[in-house]
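Narrative summary of target 7.
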Amino acid sequence: MSVVAAGRVVSIAAVSAGMAVTVALAAGCASFDDSASKPFTPAPSIQPEGSGPTSSQPKPPPTGQRPTGPCIDPDPAVVASCLDTTGGLTVLPDGQQALVTERVTGRILKVTAVDPTQAPPPPLQVTRVPVEAAGDGGLSDVALSPSYDQDGLIYAYITTPSDNRIVRIGAGGEPKPVLTGIPKGPTDNRGSITFTGPNTLSVLTGDAGNPGSANDPGSLAGKLLQIDDPGPGHANPKVVASGVGGAGGVCSDHQDSVWFTDRTATQDRLQRLDSKSGAVATAWTWPDKPGAGGCAAATDGVAVAMSGAKALAFAAADPKTHAVTANPTMVAQNKYGSLSGATLGADGMVWVGTVNKPAAPGPMDDRIVRIPPPKGGAGGSPD
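Modeled conformation, tokenized:
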């Protein structure tokens, strides 16, 4: 693996000498400030266990086993089971629920994390959006409105028979176009969205199977875009990065870094946009192409879901220079199969979605899982 430039990595990694923070797993998660549950307020870094007030530390989960039954995974880290192929996901402001997309069916579901000894409640369908799922398209991602608590609006990245687009969905469930005309192709139709500011929606688009379009200033394919005040019918996207291959994910630490991942013919990449200067730099590359997908960022780092490597990668970076200098740690490798979507919970846990259907599903696939940060730094235990 090679380091090209700077990046900043999750507090989701842990400290060894020169790394950001150590996160103990005994309590199952790290401590966040309550403001982290808001979708675009500054996300604090994950604190080492015992570094903050005792009252802020989470209590260990009660002992006992989860009840058995159809679609009840015995693994307490699993939030939901027996889903169709997942797309993206985002944690709701309460920190215990998330919206999850099914890429092929077009369903947006609400899932709930419960006490590890309880059976998870069945997923609740919020709405269903008509999509075209060929060429890895469909319902790729979902994001909350900056004022979700008041307006309940959600945004989604979808593929239609004619294009890829962003839509906004209100209480009635009807999708209203925000940005249309993102090129659609035989492959690489996946896209990713997240709010990176109170009024700014960042959009990662794939090259739709045509690498040349990624560097074409007249095409919306293969780009990192920003849309200010996104509303139905009046989006004015600004290109902030070009040359994107197959889109993985885009995520923000809500301070000075917007991270995004993509997959090219020769390597997978983790890249960083400096929110202040607008400069884009490659933070890390994977020549072995492990299938970099969705990402989740905190103030000092980023985690990346891997479909080919079947793991969650945690990269650690220097908090001042943003340089990624150590091989990202692979967590939960081969435990849940292929991973695609990722998002950060307010407790420091990373919520991920599996994409084992239709190729190699297990009896409980597909699933939503909460994965804790690694106990050690890069090169630590995979679980």
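The chain has one helix and 24 strands.
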